[in-house]
Amino acid sequence: MKFSKELAVPPHKKVRLKDYDTCETLGYETEHEKGDDNDKVDVLMEKTIRRLDDLQYTLYAEGKRSVLIVLQGMDTAGKDGTIRHVMSGASPQSCKVTSFKVPSTRERLHDFLWRIHQATPENGEIMIFNRSHYEDVLVVRVHDLVPKKVWEDRYDEINRFEKYLTENGTTILKFFLHVSKGEQKKRIEARLADPSKHWKLSEADLKEREYWDDYTEAYEAALGKCSTKYAPWFIIPADHKWFRNLAVSKIIVEALEDMDPKYPTPQIDIARMKRLLK
Ligand code: ADP
To answer: EC no. (predicted)?
Structure first.
């Protein structure tokens, strides 16, 4: 079974998020929390992370292509946790993260893709976007930050931009971390109860929660209009953190395996170097 096949949004599909179960695990089960060394899912996760490490190293050595990973989701969906998991098997030399916040005054003086384009990965790199250009059709749409006509045109603009990037050697994978409203409530409660998590909370999270239905509608539009053959969206059931981590890392590994990076042919005379080495 390929995770990417199971979880990809087919191009032009009309997405209704309530049809997607946030607790889905594709038949995988785990006693993960118990910390059993032989737990099948834990073993598979470790294997996947090791494979990711090998593949990203080869991609870096090859130095000709790159991977762009877009992470989106409601507050508490687990963007940070996913990044920590994926990065645990990657070198910071070639696997990087950019977080997109409210645009600065300078960024606002440009088109919405300007800051995004500057953060795209160099050849050999994997770049993870923690939030992305999709905020410009999500928070911007929900809160009417620009006129409708402006955000409406952005779906096509995004598709054209992503096509351009893929034509220039970047593989794009976009993950929507799908949590239920009930699970979000539990996570906010857990954060309130844990002093080490207080820094992650703000009253704005509660305010945004009131817009849950509007965000759902905005996500449905973005997933439906911008899942393309060249830059697919994946809907990741994210109520179970272990499954979210497994699914995202598996899809990245599957994509890297399809890319099949190769070490470059050495430009040196190995035999001669061996002879010369004193
Ligand atoms: P996070 O929630 O990702 O951990 P923050 O709490 O700093 O980080 O939130 C970043 C904020 O920036 C979010 O509220 C997000 O909606 C906002 N943001 C990101 N991009 C844009 C944008 N293009 N326009 C307006 N707001 C944006």
So the answer is: 2.7.4.-
